[in-house]
């Protein structure tokens, strides 16, 4: 149907174009032959057949040139009509907006200054990012809000880490811009990959083995910090390319044992693996200094903020996406988001950029209050503290 409509729309202008090109070619060839032989018109009428025959081959010498020129014009007209259809206006607007953000200078303390008017701002600053030795952690709360019952597991994991604090490249110094890459279907077809890769710090969170390799056009290829848990860690080595730091989010004590196993290259026992709800990877192709443990205060503080946006009672467990945004606020002067937001008004839309599952699958979600998270993130965007690049919040 689309192509039928397109052919109908294009038939008139293309017919006109072909007519103009034919007329131009005819006049051009005729003038050229008259210049070479002033008697061409007479010859053409048959008064000098031998001369006429000798000159009838002459247009053939220029026919290929004329055809090539006509073809270029034709392709140009098609391109002028079809390229805007391939890059819709909203996509062009998105890319222009992203380019404008990157072209301007980094603004120091931008997030801090724009968060101050929010009532929840006091809970969003000075949160430790990584677990370190001799630094306090909440032992009175079970994972992921704390590390209750994980003392020995944590000690072994920290002993296997050459470094546990902020890498030198992440420590405060010059102004830095963060990009938090979500898994939302809104990222699919965005062509934002090359823009995402230009940010100073790129944070990703792994959800159901969310891939980067193979989706570089839309999601980019670089990763500064990747938040993972054992069951969600990608099995393909390609997914860890261009990754600086892999950060474990602890949901149970056994997750720390898994991290120790990955770093030391000593496999977990068969019995230990039985406690994971899906098969976990045994090896991640990174050096020991490229691993960290997320401080549970990031999860806990994010949950406390979300409680103010929810009618539900009790400790709230946030998604890794919301936690990654709060993490970015600790590390960067400016924060942008891409691939965030669930369009519940369009149940047939993609849920994630990397798979075909549709939006109505979110109706079965019972662990996370995504409505509260959306309100929280919208407040951050409305205050100007973060930028929602893909505009789905």
UniProtKB/TrEMBL annotation:
PANTHER family: SIALYLTRANSFERASE, ST3 BETA-GALACTOSIDE ALPHA-2,3-SIALYLTRANSFERASE 5, LIKE. One of its GO terms (biological process) is lipid metabolic process. It comes from Echeneis naucrates. GO terms for cellular component: Golgi membrane. It is found in: Golgi apparatus membrane. The lineage of its organism: Eukaryota, Metazoa, Chordata, Craniata, Vertebrata. This is Lactosylceramide alpha-2,3-sialyltransferase. Keywords: Disulfide bond, Glycoprotein, Glycosyltransferase, Golgi apparatus, Lipid metabolism, Membrane, Signal-anchor, Transferase, Transmembrane, Transmembrane helix. Its EC number is 2.4.3.9. It catalyses: ganglioside GA2 (d18:1(4E)/18:0) + CMP-N-acetyl-beta-neuraminate = ganglioside GM2 (d18:1(4E)/18:0) + CMP + H(+); ganglioside GA1 (d18:1(4E)/18:0) + CMP-N-acetyl-beta-neuraminate = ganglioside GM1 (d18:1(4E)/18:0) + CMP + H(+); a beta-D-Gal-(1->4)-beta-D-Glc-(1<->1)-Cer(d18:1(4E)) + CMP-N-acetyl-beta-neuraminate = a ganglioside GM3 (d18:1(4E)) + CMP + H(+); a beta-D-Gal-(1<->1')-ceramide + CMP-N-acetyl-beta-neuraminate = N-acetyl-alpha-neuraminosyl-(2->3)-beta-D-galactosyl-(1<->1')-ceramide + CMP + H(+).
